[in-house]
Amino acid sequence: MRRILALSLFCLGACLLMRAQAPTTNSIAKDALMSLHAEGTFEVRNSSLGADDALTSTSIGRFGLDKQFQGSLEGNSKGEMLGAGNPATGTAGYVAIEQFTGTLDGRSGSFALQHFGTMEDNKFDLLVKVVPGSGTDELIGIAGTMSIAVANGKHSWKFDYFLPVHK
Question: Is the pTM of this model over 0.90?
Answer without folding.
Answer: no
